[in-house]
Amino acid sequence: MAINPQAVVDALKKRRFDAYYAPTAQDAVAQALALIPAQASVSWGGSVSVQQSGLLAALRAGDYDLIDRDTADSPEAAEALMRRGLTADVFLTSFNAVSEDGVLYNIDGRGNRVSAIAFGAKSVIALVGMNKLVAHEADLEKRALSVAAPQNAARLGKNADDICATFVKTRLSMIPGRIRIILVGEDLGY
Questions:
Q1: Based on CB atoms within 10 Å of each CB, which residue in 83, 126, 150, 161 is the most buried?
Q2: Neighbour order of strands in the sheet with 104-108
């Protein structure tokens, strides 16, 4: 049974997330850029979805204060940028899984991504491909562990157990609209 994207958007809104549907990654990038004020500080975790969509390239060509750990010249500098990214105006990410009833799920290695999502950044914008939707809340962790973690581990040249340190399920936005999810009508990321 296929999951109806509009039903997921509606479920996310009921949980006090801002939610949008974009038919393509290009549309998702346009929506995300419309949500990011000029000159805002912007950071991101290691999101393949954000990179694949073209959002990072668009940001690099724009007028933003980018906090980009990939520009660091040492592990210490990268960590300093990740810490600074925790309090960015906007943090970009995706989720490993989203249930049809609007629950979000992430596994993280170092914790910088889930920390920024849970509390740090002023706002969070997540691009989520259709491949990340699951029918039930009980299926969230299974998808994250059996699909997202192995692919991310392979990308990083690590063992999946090494990148599965912190598990976070987000069921409700305590600050309405702080977390914005753009559901993309195509597969994106892992």
A1: 126
A2: 133-134, 97-99, 104-108, 166-170
pTM > 0.85: yes or no: yes
Find the DSSP H helices in 86-130.
112-115
189: left (phi over 0), alpha (psi -120 to 50) or beta: left
- Among 55, 62, 61, 44, residue whose Cα is nearest residue 22: 55
pLDDT digit string (tens) for 131-144? 999 999 999 999 99
Q: What average pLDDT does range 49-63 have in this prediction?
A: 96
- Going by C-alpha positions, the residue among 81, 94, 85, 97 that lies closest to residue 122 is 85
Find the helix or strand (DSSP H, E) in which 60 lies.
helix 55-60
Question: What phi and psi, each to the nearest 5 degrees, are found at residue 117?
Answer: -70, -50
Say which residue the tokens 């995706």 belong to.
94
DSSP character at residue 90: E
Q: Under a CB-based contact definition with an 8 Å cutoff, are residues 24 and 186 in contact? A: yes
The three-class DSSP label of residue 160 is helix
